[in-house]
Each structure stands twice: as C-alpha cells, then as structure tokens.
C-alpha cells in the first residue's frame, strides 16, 4: 500500500510503501532510501531479512511468498517495473508501460500490473504478457486484488468509477468470470480469501463491508463498521483460514469480523409477555424500509483494535505467530503494531509490541498484559498447490467496460538492458526464459 500523502510526504516517516506477502510471513517496506524485508515469525523481535539502499524512492515492492522474487517500482521511474532475484542481487527483467504503475500483484501463476485505465497479466514463469485488459474505468488508486490460490486464480477490479461494481476476471482461462454489483458508492477496498472463493468489498462510504462467493457473486455476509460517520477504508484482509476479516480505515479503530453462519433455532410459541412483544417486534420489521431492515441483519464487529493514531494511512493483516492469532497493522507513522486476538471471545485486542520500520531498529511498547488472550488458534488450513499450466482460449471475452486483448497487442515496451542498474543488482544478465525465473522458486 502506498503510505505517502498526496503531497508526496509521509509525515516524519521515510516510508513510501508497505505490504505483507501472500501468506503474511514477511513484510515488505519501501522508503526514500530503498527497501527492506522483515520476517514475521516472532512478536518480540522483528528480524530484518534483507535491505537494499541502492534503489531510492521505492514506491512499490512486492515479494512472492517466501521466495527471492521481488517486483520493484521507483518514483524516479514510475512507469518501469523491475523483477529481481534479491538474494543473488540480479535483475531478471524489466518492463516499461505507457503510464504510471499504480499497483503490482503476485501469485505463483500470475503477475498483475495495474495502470489507471488498463491491467496487464503476465505469466510468472517467463514474464510474458498473456493478456491486456484495456479501457477499464478510471482507477487512480490502482485498486485491485489477486487471489493467491492456484485453482481459483481470480483478479478483481472496479467495473465502474461511479458505483461499486466489481469485475471478476479468470487469469488462468483469460476470460471474464462475473460482474458483482457490490455497493451503491464507488469501491474503496477489495480482498480475496486464501482459497479464492470469497471476496470482501468496501465502498468509499465505508460503513458496510460485504463478502461474496466467487465466482458466483452471491452475497454471503454483510457487516456494519459503523453508522455515525463515513470513513475511508484503508485495507481489508482475511485470516488464512478464512474465519476472520479485518478492516482498517483512516480512524483509530480496526474492526475484526467473524465469518460464521448463525443457525436458526426452531420457532416456539411465546409463553410470556416479553416473548409476545419480541415476536411482534420481529414481525414489524417486514413493514420497515429495506435499508432499515438490512441494518437489523448486518453483523457487528467480533473484535476491535484501538490504534494510537488517527488519520495515518495503514495496512492490516491477520496471522498466526507463535501459535497465537495476531492482528498486524503497518502504518505511515513508521511503526508495525502487533495485537493479540482472542478467537473465542473477541472484544478489545491487546497491544503486544510495536516495532519501528524506518531508521533504527529499536522496539518500543513492551507487552502490556502477558497473561491476556494467549489462546492458540486452529491450525491454518492453507497449503500451496502445485501450479497448473495455463489454458489460453482462442477468443477471450470480457464483461463491462474493460475489455481483454491478447498479449501480442501489449503496448508497453519491453527492455532487457541492464544499463543504470543499481549497484546491488549488477552482475546478472536479464532474461525472460522460464528456466531463469524457475530458479527463484527454488531459492530459500
């Protein structure tokens, strides 16, 4: 996520970008001085895995799971994408596009590059452009989401700039899968669960969060973040087991929702006055406007987090660290906040640590309550499947305004020159052969 403000500054922090990798085992941070990777295996200590100071003003840095493959974009060349093997210090390839790169998404099958009015779908193994979706509705924030599941490898992006339509695209078969009318207002956040079968959405209004089945588009859950004020949702994130959904915003509160279906109890005839009154009240809701009835049916937050700031851009994630469920929040104030989540009781989450991400590696805020909320979560039920070979249809189609085109019509020019490479990246020839990229996956 871009952590810089519109003026290009991120307050007192040097951070420009922060994002968790696909399984929330590491954190990538881009800054004015370069980029870093941190391991998320411990709460007490934030271990720095790697640091590069030769590429300045890094506004996008995305790592592929725990491999050495990393995609980098700098503010000094915002239309150029570099794909590197950071442990070897080599550049695999680079691509140039006709406009500023706003977002890059990775999984084991595909690499997605999002521009304001187009999306490029690359094959992760050889970095060839397989497909281009052109003339998408204006998307100045680069909002999009890519499923990390190999079998349900879907891409979601806004289908309209005026209402909350979601276009769902199958990146394996290279065809549109569905269009979901998710909200009345334009979209602000999107997130897939690890299985690629659920999609969470939020609009610019920020009061209601919905979860849809993928690819069918059926509404499964609806949660209300609040009714008092409209907010800007910064990020949505599922837990790896798909049981919880977190939502952070420009306010000081992070909401965590539990995705569980409440079983209806069999109807019994009331025997008391209060029972009769309750039955009449439930019956009266059928005469209320649909908007009011929906509010009665919307789920509330299972747990909440009170951040020590308000107004900072941030990104949240749910992870199991040292067998305990945690909520992680990386913010533009330059800190990573770690909270404990009680998966049975919920309630207010406990701040355990906050780690400084820029400058010195000092850690502040020791554990506030060492005895609270230390209950283990069920083992994460996520395993990476073996990638399957992509199937390319002869006539791809797309729904809505954004249309898809074959990779042969890719307008972004490709360059494999190693000129002006950062010092740490020199020494490796550029290549887009599958053998070169496959070595990245074997690296530890």
UniProtKB/TrEMBL annotation:
Q: How does it sit in the membrane?
A: Peripheral membrane protein
Q: In which domain of life is the source organism classified?
A: Eukaryota
GO terms (molecular function) for this protein are:
phosphatidylinositol-3-phosphate binding
Q: Where is the composition biased (Basic and acidic residues)?
A: 402-412
For the keyword Repeat, the answer is yes
Compartment(s): Preautophagosomal structure membrane
Q: Which GO terms describe its cellular component?
A: phagophore assembly site membrane
> Residues of the signal sequence?
none
Q: Where is this region: Disordered?
A: 386-417
Q: Does the keyword Membrane apply?
A: yes
The UniProt keyword set, sorted, is: Autophagy, Lipid-binding, Membrane, Repeat, WD repeat
User: What GO biological process, any one, is recorded here?
Assistant: response to stress
Q: Which family does it belong to?
A: Belongs to the WD repeat PROPPIN family.
Task: Describe, as the record does, how this protein assembles with itself and its partners.
Answer: Interacts with TECPR1. Interacts with ATG16L1. Interacts with ATG5. Interacts with WIPI1. Interacts with WDR45. May interact with NUDC. Interacts with ULK1 and RB1CC1.
What's this chain's function?
Answer: Component of the autophagy machinery that controls the major intracellular degradation process by which cytoplasmic materials are packaged into autophagosomes and delivered to lysosomes for degradation. Involved in an early step of the formation of preautophagosomal structures. Binds and is activated by phosphatidylinositol 3-phosphate (PtdIns3P) forming on membranes of the endoplasmic reticulum upon activation of the upstream ULK1 and PI3 kinases. Mediates ER-isolation membranes contacts by interacting with the ULK1:RB1CC1 complex and PtdIns3P.
* The protein, known as: WD repeat domain phosphoinositide-interacting protein 2
């Amino acid at each position: 996520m871009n952590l810089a403000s519109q003026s290009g500054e991120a307050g007192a922090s040097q951070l420009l970008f922060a994002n968790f990798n696909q399984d929330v085992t590491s954190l990538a941070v881009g800054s004015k001085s370069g980029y870093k990777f941190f391991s998320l295996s411990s709460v007490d200590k934030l271990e720095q895995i790697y640091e590069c100071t030769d590429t300045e003003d890094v506004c996008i840095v995305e790592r592929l799971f725990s491999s050495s493959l990393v995609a980098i974009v700098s503010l000094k060349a915002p239309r150029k994408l570099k794909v590197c093997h950071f442990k070897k210090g080599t550049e695999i390839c680079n691509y140039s596009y006709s406009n500023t790169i706003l977002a890059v998404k990775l999984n084991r099958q595909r690499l997605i590059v999002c521009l304001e009015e187009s999306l490029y779908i690359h094959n992760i193994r050889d970095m060839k452009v397989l497909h281009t979706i052109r003339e998408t509705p204006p998307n100045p924030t680069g909002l999009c989401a890519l499923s990390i599941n190999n079998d349900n490898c879907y891409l979601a992006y806004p289908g309209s700039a005026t209402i909350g339509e979601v276009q769902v695209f199958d990146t394996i078969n290279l065809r549109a899968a569905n269009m979901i009318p998710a909200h009345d207002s334009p979209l602000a956040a999107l997130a897939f669960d690890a299985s690629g079968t659920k999609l969470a959405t939020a609009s610019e209004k920020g009061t209601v969060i919905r979860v849809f089945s993928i690819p069918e588009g059926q509404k499964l859950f609806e949660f209300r973040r609040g009714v008092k004020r409209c907010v800007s949702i910064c990020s949505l994130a599922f837990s790896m087991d798909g049981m919880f959904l977190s939502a952070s915003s420009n306010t000081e509160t992070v909401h965590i929702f539990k995705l569980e279906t409440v079983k209806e109890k069999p109807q019994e005839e009331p025997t008391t006055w209060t029972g009769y009154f309750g039955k009449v009240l439930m019956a009266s809701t059928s005469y209320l406007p649909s908007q009011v009835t929906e509010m009665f049916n919307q789920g509330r937050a299972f747990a909440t987090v009170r951040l020590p700031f308000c107004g900072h851009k941030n990104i949240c994630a749910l992870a199991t660290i040292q067998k305990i469920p945690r909520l992680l929040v990386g913010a533009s104030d330059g800190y990573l906040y770690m909270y404990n989540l009680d998966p049975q009781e919920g309630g207010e989450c406990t701040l355990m640590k906050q780690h400084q991400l820029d400058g010195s590696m000092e850690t502040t805020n020791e554990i506030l309550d060492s005895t609270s909320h230390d209950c283990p979560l069920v083992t994460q039920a996520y395993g990476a499947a073996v990638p399957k070979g992509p199937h390319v249809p002869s006539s791809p189609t797309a729904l809505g305004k954004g249309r898809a085109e074959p990779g042969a019509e890719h307008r972004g020019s490709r360059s494999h020159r190693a000129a002006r490479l950062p010092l740490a990246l020199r020494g490796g020839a550029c290549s887009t052969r599958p053998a070169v990229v496959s070595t990245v996956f074997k690296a530890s």
